[in-house]
Protein: tRNA (guanine-N(7)-)-methyltransferase
Organism: Cellulomonas alba
Amino acid sequence: MSQPSDAFRHVAARPHAPLRTFHPRRIALGKDRQDALRRLFPQLGFSVHDEPSFPRRADGTLDAEALFGRRAPLVLEIGPGMGDATVTMAAADPTRDVLAVEAHVPGIANLLVLVRDAGLTNVRVGHGDALDLVRDAIAPGSLDEVRAYFPDPWPKARHHKRRLVQPVHVSLLRSRVRVGGTLHVATDWAEYADQMLEVLVADPDLDCSGFSPRPPHRPVTKFEARGLDLGHESRDLIATRVR
C-alpha cells in the first residue's frame, strides 16, 4: 500500500464536477495515524475514488455481502467524523452492517483504530465523497438507513447550494433506501434545521412528522457536546420512506 499521504491525496486535490458538500482539509498525520492507515485500511477500508477498492456485483453496484462477509441490513453513515458515535451505535446493533464514508483522513484513521479496539466486524470505512458512492455504486432500495449527523451547515447564503440536505441529494439518498427504511439527520445550526425540515417534509416519498428528541440509540458526539456547552440546540429529524 502507498504511504497514506499519497494514497489519500486525491480527494482534496482532484477536481470534481459536482459541488462538494464538505471542506477538503489538508491535515498532517502523526506517526500513529499513519501506522493505523497502513495496517488497518487494507482490512477495513476502501477507496471511493480513482481506483475503487470495494467488491462489486455484475451490475457494478457495491456487493455488501462480499464486503462484510455476510448478508445483513446495511446502514450508510455520511461523515462519521472521528467515529466515536459510529462505533458506539455499531456495537449496540450488531445485527446491522455500517458503511461509514468520510472524506477526511484523520477521521478515517481514528475510526479504524476505534473499530479495531472494539473488535467490531460490522463496520467498513470508505474514503471519499459519500454522494459519489451513492450515485455510482449503491443499488436502489438496498439501504436500511442513511445517517448524517451534523453535516457542514455552510452558513453563508451563497454556500447553501453546497449543503448535504437539499432536495436533489435527499431524492438521491431516499431512492437508495428500502421502503420502510429511514433517513436520520441532525444539526445544531437552527437555520439549517429549518431547511432540513422543509426539504424532508416536501419529499412526497418520505414521511417526516417534524423534529424529534434525540433518540436513545444516537449518542451525543464530541462535536455536539461542544455545541451544547456553547448553548446550541441539537435537532434530529427522522424520515421514513413510504413508497
About this structure: Strands lie at 45-47, 74-78, 97-102, 123-127, 143-149, 177-187, 206-207, 211-212, 235-241. The first helix runs from residue 4 to 7. The CA atoms of residues 77 and 100 lie 5 Å apart. The two ends are 43 Å apart (CA to CA).
